[in-house]
Design a protein that fits this description.
The chain is of the alpha+beta class. It contains 5 helices and 9 strands. The mean pLDDT is 83.
Amino acid sequence: MVLGLVVHLVSVLALPRIATQDAYSRLTPMTRLNSVTQLPLADPNTSPMPFMDPAFALAICRYDLSGGPLKLTVPVSQSYTSVSFYTRNEIAYYAINDRSAGKKVIELDLMTEAQHDALPEDEEITAADRLIIDSPATTGLIVMKALAAEPGLMPQAQATLNAATCAPQTEAPAKAEAPRGRR
């Protein structure tokens, strides 16, 4: 019984690291690096990811921070908008939605802790002015969702995510406090 428990725990913990068809691998051929790609609507036969909710428009930003920080901007949809951050190994490390952002646009900077520490301090910029997310890894996925409360509102939800941007920063962001946990 103890041996069975040990084998079970080892296999459950090792499978995500040795799986060849994880979400990052499945999305690589259909997404561009450091850019927002809208996914097709959920269809059980052709969905690129399992268990996609048909009430949500979905967009992905596959990122690589080795070249520098990213600037993410996601307009808020009429019903509900969320943004979730995952490492290359599918570990969720941060999430934000339109209600916690409190603005009409979710705007943030994504960088590694080393990139964050290298930023110059600017006393005039506060944490409320700029949201900086520290990524625990240089590569990963950002999943953006916009709810279509009714089927007829799906084009509007898709248009919201079409306006989202995920691109390398052209100017250095001002230093601000980074949230350390998920919201």
